[in-house]
Amino acid sequence: MSDAAIKNDKGELIDPTPLCLLCGQGHQHFLERLASVPREPAPPPRGKGRNTVAVSASQCLAEALFSPWHRQDSTPSFRWDPAEDVRYALMARDPTDRAYKAGTQHGANRLAAVGLAVLTLAPKMRAGRTRPVVVGGAVDSDGFSFAIPIWRDPATLAAIRVLLSHPDLRKPGKLKHLCVDHVVVAQRISVGKFLNFARGRLLT
Fold first, then answer.
1. Which residues have CB under 8 Å from 71's CB, separation 6+?
2. CB-based contacts of 133: which residues, under 8 Å, 6+ apart?
3. Each residue of 18-74: pLDDT tens digit?
4. Could you tell me which residues come within 8 angstroms of residue 98 by beta carbon, excluding any fewer than 6 positions away?
5. Domain residues for 99?
6. Number of folded domains in the chain?
7. How far apart are CA 109 and CA 69, in angstroms?
């Protein structure tokens, strides 16, 4: 957040990062979760009875980075995963039912919580008001979206941050000289009182 980006005229509320999707709905609070998730090394054991399997901290991180996600954990998340967009119209049963509720990928959420600090936030004037913006993010008529460059060769953290803030990031094919094969854009959506990110679409 930035104290220059105020949400209302009275100066009472600071406008949070557009990546904050938890604003108290269902007693889910972003800062509390941002602090707690990285401190939980591993999720609770998976399965039931004789099929219970304990997962180590290193294993759940390795799964997030190198394996297909199976979302078998019951730990808190940030609603950044498109799989968390569960709606009545798309489900055979009540998506709020605990027995039916989708799980999370704990290692991915731990990495995301720590990595959020890389996405620098700064205040910017838009539509007559100072608002927070993050590298990789943009706002248009459809609302906020986040662009993710997919690069071919290994890249340093500094190089990735430059790619995220490049002025041609959302122009198809413009970053090929920087080894970017393509760019995926994820749209922030509103589902009732909840916010979520939709599945990323290829920028063409």
1. 81, 83, 102, 103, 104, 105
2. 18, 121, 122, 123, 124, 126, 139
3. 999 998 877 789 999 999 999 999 999 998 888 899 999 999 999 999 999 999 999
4. none
5. 25-116
6. 2
7. 12
